[in-house]
What we know:
9 strands, globular, single chain, alpha+beta
Amino acid sequence: MRHDMLSRGIGSALGAGVLAVGALAMAPAAGAVEPRTATLSFDCGSFGSGTATLTAAQNGTSATIEVSTSAITAPIDVAAGSVASTLTLTKNGSGTTAFTGNSNPAIPAGGPVSTGPLTGTVAAGDSLAGKSLKIVVFGITVTCEATSAQSPGPFVF
């Protein structure tokens, strides 16, 4: 009888475990943005021009975008966390939304500017494409305007 009760106990535990795993498999995943990485060109006026790589991630309604661009290079060493950035994106073909932050890695003199993660809020189905980038470092504001469409296309959340 003891063996029979033990077998039922193990069977019940295994059954509960299978149900739990099945529930996890059926649970909706945290939002997945596509494409994960995109590129576009920026013109930053007298500060230069070049290509930018945008890397997006999503967790529910929160999203981040990291920016690395050859359009702007650091004239001197820039400490981590000292670049304030605003990336403005077109939203769903009309209107805009902004991702902001001041989380940049240390940038050596002459190195391309990298910033992010910049944070913003998204809803399911939002389609966002880079429009402009504003960077403030050492009190100097650099505004870059997109000169190409985002490739391979907008981020869809």
